[in-house]
Design brief:
Order of helices and strands: HEEEEHEEEHEEHEEHEEEEEEEEHEE
Distance between the termini: 43 Å
Helix content: 10-25%
Shape: elongated
InterPro entries: SINL_plant, Znf_RING/FYVE/PHD, Znf_SIAH
CATH architecture of the largest domain: Sandwich
Keywords: Metal-binding, Zinc, Zinc-finger
Protein name: SIAH-type domain-containing protein
Number of helices: 6
Structural class: mainly beta
Number of domains: 2
Radius of gyration: 26 Å
Organism: Eragrostis curvula
Strand content: 25-35%
GO molecular function: zinc ion binding
CATH topology of the largest domain: Apoptosis, Tumor Necrosis Factor Receptor Associated Protein 2, Chain A
């Protein structure tokens, strides 16, 4: 079962217990004119200071922050689209004014990533935590082997668990945007691909027979399988010229696609994603190996084929 990340987990280190929950939040010490890159110090502040004052809302405050005539800080939705409306705290009509000083404070309050114990060392602006959780590479995922109840961070922990406890083969790639060659027996159904770059990620290569063809797919293992694609994959299979061919010929099958996200065994990324179909005539040797080349790129506005990915 995945850990329950409640507000106390999301906000990082919790202070002393009491009637009010307090959170140690890292804030930039600016002095008179200090810049955004200046020194920082830790303070303990109450949660409600960073949330909309309307009890039924309780959303995280994010710039621009507004307050009513009585000083209640409300989120954009609760103050109304024009800024002059009804304050749910005062229960009367009021005029809201922008609070640039509060904006500066809200934008500089950082907390440790909720997945710090899984390896993430980032400090995140408090109101940006939901977005960070969707993208964090260290968010724990369940083991990809059905029946195993281990949950671990994909890049180091889940990779090591699958390799040590389930004997999965792991291929380590040094960088993105480089082509690597793999030769895999058709009988194997899963391989792990690890890109050990500045943004380490774990990818799952799946092989299965679909009719008369061997289907190959690649997905990114991460908890948020609903997140948009962050990577593209160029995958191609090659086979030598048949011995009875009259002339030299090259047989190649290629697929270029966004890399879907996979959070659970047999999830939508595997069943509904793109598959490259390799015909049996392209398999090599008695063990029926498929010779693959693969390149994984970080997503950019435009993906252009290069000589490495013909």
């Amino acid at each position: 079962m995945l850990p329950d990340v409640g507000r106390s987990r999301e906000a990082g280190t919790v202070g002393e217990a009491g009637s009010h929950r307090r959170q140690r939040i890292s804030r930039k010490s600016r002095g008179r004119r200090a810049g955004r890159g200046g020194p920082r110090f830790n303070v303990s502040l109450e949660f409600h200071l960073f949330h909309c004052a309307v009890a039924d809302c309780d959303s995280r405050l994010k710039p621009p922050v507004y307050k009513c005539e009585a000083g209640h800080r409300l989120c954009h939705n609760c103050r109304g689209p024009r800024g002059d409306g009804h304050c749910g705290i005062c229960d009367r009509a009021t005029t809201f004014v922008h609070c640039p000083d509060v904006d500066m404070f809200i934008d500089s309050a950082k907390v440790p990533c909720p997945y710090e114990s899984f390896g993430c060392d980032r400090s995140v602006v408090y109101h940006e935590i939901p977005e960070h959780l969707d993208a964090c590479a260290y968010a724990p995922c369940p083991c990809l082997v059905p029946g195993c109840h281990v949950a671990a961070s994909p890049p180091p922990m889940l990779r090591d668990h699958l390799a040590a406890d389930h004997a999965w083969t792991v291929h380590k790639f040094a960088a993105y945007a480089k082509a690597y060659t793999l030769r895999i027996p058709a009988a194997e159904s899963q391989r792990l691909l690890v890109v050990e770059a500045d943004d380490p990620r774990l990818f799952l290569m799946s092989l299965r027979w679909r009719g008369a063809a061997l289907a190959v797919s690649v997905s990114c293992v991460r908890r948020s399988d609903a997140a948009g694609p962050d990577f593209k994959c160029c995958l191609w299979a090659t086979a030598p010229t048949p011995p009875d061919a009259r002339r030299q010929m090259e047989r190649r099958v290629m697929m270029e696609t966004d890399v879907a996200s996979c959070a659970v065994p047999g999830g939508p990324a595997l069943e509904n994603g793109m598959w490259m179909h390799v015909m049996p005539e392209m398999l090599l040797g008695p063990s029926q190996e498929v010779q693959l080349r693969i390149r994984i790129d970080k997503n950019r506005p435009a993906f252009v084929l290069t000589p490495e990915c013909p």
